[in-house]
Amino acid sequence: MADRVLVTGGAGYIGAHACKALARAGFVPVVFDNLSTGWAEAVKWGPLVKADLLDRAAVDAALAEHRPVAVMHFAALSLVGVSMQDPGLYWRTNVSGALNLVEACVAAGVKNIVFSSTCATYGDQDGVLLTEDAAQKPINAYGGSKLAIEGILRDFGAAHGLAHVIFRYFNVAGADPEGEVGEQHRPETHLIPLMLDAVAGRRPALTVFGTDYATPDGTCVRDYVHVADLAEAHVLGLRRLLQGRGDGVFCLGSGRGFSVREVIEASRAVTNREVPVVIGARRAGDAASLVCASTRAVSVLGWQPQRSDLRQMIGDAWAWAQKPGFAG
User: Fold this and answer.
1) Which residues partner with 250 through β-bridges?
2) Are the C-beta atoms of 141 and 92 separated by less than 8 Å?
3) Is the pLDDT at 328 greater than 50, yes or no?
4) Last residue of a domain, which of 252, 271, 302?
5) CA angle centred on 152, ends 148 and 158, rounded to 5°
6) Range in 43-52, 122-131, 186-195, 263-272 the model is least confident about
7) Which residues, other chains included, contact 40 with Cβ-Cβ below 8 Å and sequence gap of 6+?
8) Do 210 and 116 reside in the same domain of the chain?
9) Do 248 and 264 fall within a single domain?
10) Backbone conformation region of residue 9, classed left if phi is above 0, alpha if psi is from -120 to 50, else beta
11) Which domain holds residue 25?
12) Does the residue 186 lie in any domain?
């Protein structure tokens, strides 16, 4: 029988793409998701356990039933603005949920975890190409909660031999090139799908939050990575753990930042349509610029992103945006 991997948050955007990559690599992804933001329709490559990480008994039961060789941990609240308004919710959900998961893994003898972290752990470091060794000083509760989970993994690794790979990335974009899954959050907060909804007439306009940042055109700058490339990196990280090659922290990105205005211009080129725009105020917790290098992932994991060109990512997202998507 094929080895099983428990994928928390596997009904969400990134988790679902990771499940497809796992299935393609010969694993059976077992999705553990409370479906608060994920979609049951996105669970296509293995069984679904509908449960919450805050329910320790449910986590224990899932590990006992499916006996996975590893866990991929994606489940988390991830809205920066909300994390600034309600930090307790983020610390309780993200950190307590992760601690439940990690303690359950140790009790069940599951020794391998691939963790979905974020470049938000670095905070606002303008003009710096972020590497794995850059100082981590988050400016919002979302980034703070992810940094805390990184610390939990290190401590449990030292105390219990829990092997782990940590991936830090920022703006994930695009959709499955074969159109089986794509980006569809509830609510949607990410730039590219919001922009394409405005292009398609499903919302009146795209709001640009702030035009007075210390960037070349005044709008925030972000590094974008294709979700399919990201999923492949997670499979490579899993294989590293299963081969006993030790822990690792890896940044995943293109090494180039694009401003919000540049993303809008790229959308015009891809869709051949105008993007209706309104200018809004800055959002609390938004860094001016976040760009990360992925040289370690390339050299150590052999990661070779295939689709992380901005126009390719927008093109794949546009193809998904024109499909019916999942039921609300």
Assistant:
1) 167
2) no
3) no
4) 252
5) 145
6) 122-131
7) 11, 48, 50
8) no
9) no
10) left
11) 4-173+225-252
12) no
**Is-contact 45 31, C-beta < 8 A?**
no
The overall average pLDDT reported for the chain is: 94
Least confident of 20-24, 185-189, 214-218, 311-315: 185-189
pLDDT of residue 81: 79
186: tokens are 């509830």
Active site residue 142: yes
| CATH classification of the domain holding 211 | 3.90.25.10
Q: Evaluate whether 146 touches 121 at the Cβ level (below 8 Å).
A: yes
d(CA 51, CA 33): 6
| pLDDT of 129 strictly over 90 | no
Q: Are residues 26 and 86 in the same domain?
A: yes
Q: Which positions ≥6 away from 150 have C-beta within 8 Å? A: 115, 117, 121, 166, 249
Q: Does 95 share its domain with 24? A: yes
Q: Which two tokens stand for residue 164?
A: 């782990």
State the pLDDT at residue 326.
60
Mean pLDDT score, 132-142:
93
C-alpha distances (whole Å) from 284 to each of 263, 287, 307 are: 21, 9, 31
Q: Is residue 328 domain-resident? A: no
pLDDT of 144 above 80:
yes
**Which amino acid belongs to residue 152?**
I
Considering 13, 90, 122, 142, which one is annotated as catalytic? 142
Q: Which amino acid is at 181?
A: V
Task: Please check whether residues 87 and 235 belong to one and the same domain.
Answer: yes
Domain count, the chain: 2
- Other CB atoms within a 10 A radius of the CB of residue 88 amount to 9
Q: Would you state the pLDDT for residue 324?
A: 67
